[in-house]
Amino acid sequence: MRTGRGPRRGGFRWKVPAERDLSSESRFRLPGAAGVCAALLPPEAGGPPSAELAAQVEAYAARLPAAARHGLRAGVAGVQALSVATTGRRLERLPVDRREAVLERLAARPETAHAVEGLKAMVLLVGGAHQRAAEMLAHAAATEPARPDPVLDVTASSGWPDSARADVVVIGSGAGGAMVARTLARAGASVVVLEEGRRYSVHEFRTRHPLDRFADLYRDAGATFALGRPPVALPLGRGVGGSTLVNSGTCYRPPSDVLERWRDQCGVKLADPPALAPYLDEVERTLDVASVPAAVMGRNGELLLAGAQRLGWTAAPLLRNAPGCGGCCQCAIGCPRNAKLGVHLNALPEACAAGARVVSEARVDRLVVDAGERPAWWPAGPTARGSSSVPAPWWSRPAPPRRLRCSAAAGSAHTRRWDATWPCTRRWGRPAASPTPWWRGRVCSRARRSRSSTAARGSSSRPPRPHRAWGR
Ligand SMILES: Cc1cc2nc3c(=O)[nH]c(=O)nc-3n(C[C@H](O)[C@H](O)[C@H](O)COP(=O)(O)OP(=O)(O)OC[C@H]3O[C@@H](n4cnc5c(N)ncnc54)[C@H](O)[C@@H]3O)c2cc1C
Ligand code: SF4
Q1: Please, how many CA atoms are within 13 Å of residue 254, restricted to the half-sphere of its CB?
Q2: With contact defined as beta carbons under 8 Å apart, do 364 and 375 qualify?
Q3: Residue of 132, 246, 328 with the most ligand 2 atoms within 8 Å of its CB, for mutation
Q4: Range 65-95 burial, b when 16+ CB lie within 10 A, else e
Q5: What is the enclosing helix (H) or strand (E) of 68?
Q6: CA nearest 303: which of 426, 437, 425, 423?
Q7: Going by CA atoms, what residue is nearest to atom 29 of ligand 1?
Q8: Assign residue 238 a region: left if phi > 0, alpha if psi is -120 to 50, beta otherwise?
Q9: How far is the CA of 340 from the centre of ligand 1 (A)?
């Protein structure tokens, strides 16, 4: 298959948005945001000055896709309209309890509750990130990285040649793509990995503002949702290493009953548990999976284990791939210690050592089948195009762009067919004694009630507490 710059079809263009410093810049106006911020995190109850927080929310919102920005603007306008309709005043002009009453009224109605939750999530994310930024950065700087950044053969798409040939093009450099690239490169194929995001260094994870890291490392600055009732947030990592840059590093093998279902109902022969076991052994070796030490687990984990023991549940520290973890709880925005072994630290460098090349900032928008029968690739930016003995593109989990779904990939019976999500729920608890800050100690313990009912896990950092009853 050939990779290289191809014709821009249908007017689509490749563009890498310039990264902006969210902590200082705002280009998106969100009228009425200060009132909503004042209701959610009232300065009277210890929240930040509302105008300052609103400016920070605007700066973050500037990074969101247009649909999310429009929704946000409509949500804020709606809350303010309800405030005027029911009290005669905008939120910022109301005393704190009446502001809260307006939000409670909206949160009580099923048709507006999700919108209020969305506003709450954004304001608390931004407020929490700014409130804790200095502490987080100081914590990150206090210890040296467990390992340096490895050598990777990464070329930004702007520097990729006009045309190149490869046996295989892998789309996406995340957990799946990296392993595929490594396997094929080691088998002697010439491999090019096309990655929409860019490469990040551990230095950036140690020095950049938490909110900048969040906005950089996720597609659409974190605002990806599966739309439905209720809408479900579906964050997707974006960068060389994919979601393993931002995941928690929890490593469990698929349960055998799940594998058997895949084998028997979906026809995936490799899912046969004994057949798959050696491959899982190899993945665990690559990722260096081990039980979390007590010192890293911290008090939060201890409390979870103690609670599970009292309930008679099976409980143990989590299995993770983070040798050298210091428990700073920043996994979701890039590990500042290079402790969590995402594929950018193992499978990708190993793939590159075997000859694979990674093209970053190259989002594939379209697959094209040439006049011949063989598939071709047409990414935005450097185009990947050509023919191959590989019958279908290897496609990683995130939803392909719409253009791509309408092109050659749509012909594959497997495209988007086996997607599954693992929904998370949460329940807050406050220990009776020795309360522990939520952000100290990793999400590191696990308890389960029975084989079929699921794992309760420890705690993580959380944003500041919204105002009183309705926000819990
Ligand atoms: C916050 C978070 C926490 C998680 N925690 C855990 C955990 O603790 N344990 C666990 O087992 N799993 C966890 N996961 C899930 C796990 O990380 C993913 O299931 C896994 O990374 C998926 O691998 P993948 O290769 O399919 O996709 P990804 O790892 O998401 O990689 C896909 C890559 O493809 C790129 N890409 C997408 N579209 C295009 C395109 N059109 N052109 C070019 N490039 C493209 C993306 O930028 C991305 O880099 C977590 C996920 C998230 C988001
Ligand atoms: S808790 Fe996560 S971010 Fe912090 S050192 Fe451990 S792996 Fe890295």
Answers
A1: 19
A2: no
A3: 328
A4: eeebbebbbebbebbbebbeeeeebbbbebe
A5: helix 66-87
A6: 437
A7: 174
A8: beta
A9: 15
Is any ligand 2 atom within 6 A of the Cβ of residue 208? no
- Contact by Cβ (8 Å): 111, 229: no
State which ligand 2 atom lies nearest to the alpha carbon of 326: 5
Neighbours of 107 (CB within 10 A): 18
- Return the residue matching tokens 């946000």: 72
For 358, the token pair is: 């990674």
Looking up tokens 């997707």, which residue turns up?
236
* Nearest CA, atom 2, ligand 2: 331
CA distance 34 to 65: 21
Q: Which of 429, 380, 432, 329 is nearest to 10 (CA)?
A: 380
* pLDDT per residue of the chain (472 residues) written in tens, 0 to 9: 555 554 433 222 333 444 555 444 457 899 999 999 999 999 998 899 999 999 999 999 999 999 889 999 999 999 999 999 999 999 999 999 999 899 989 888 887 888 888 899 899 999 999 999 999 999 889 999 999 999 999 999 999 887 778 899 999 999 999 999 999 999 999 999 999 999 999 999 999 999 999 999 999 999 887 776 667 778 899 999 999 999 999 999 998 998 999 899 888 899 999 999 999 999 999 999 999 888 888 777 787 788 888 888 888 888 999 999 988 889 999 999 999 999 999 999 999 999 999 999 998 887 765 555 444 443 343 333 333 333 333 333 444 445 455 555 555 555 555 556 666 666 655 555 555 555 555 555 565 655 444 454 544 444 445 555 444 4
Residue 225 structure tokens: 């949702």
User: What tokens appear for 349 in the block?
Assistant: 């460098």
Structural domains of the chain sorted by starting position, each given as residue range(s) with its CATH number in brackets: 33-137 (no CATH), 147-249+325-411 (3.50.50.60), 297-320+427-472 (no CATH)
Q: Which atom of ligand 2 is nearest to the CA of 328?
A: 4
State in Å: Cα 440 to ligand 2 middle: 11
End-to-end CA distance of the chain: 54
330 lines ligand 1 (CB under 6 A): no
- Is-above-0.90 flag for pTM? no
Could you write out the DSSP letters of every residue in 348-366?
HHHHHHTT-EEEES--EEE
Q: In this structure, is the dihedral angle defined by the CA atoms of residues 240, 245, 251 and 253, taken in order, positive or negative?
A: negative
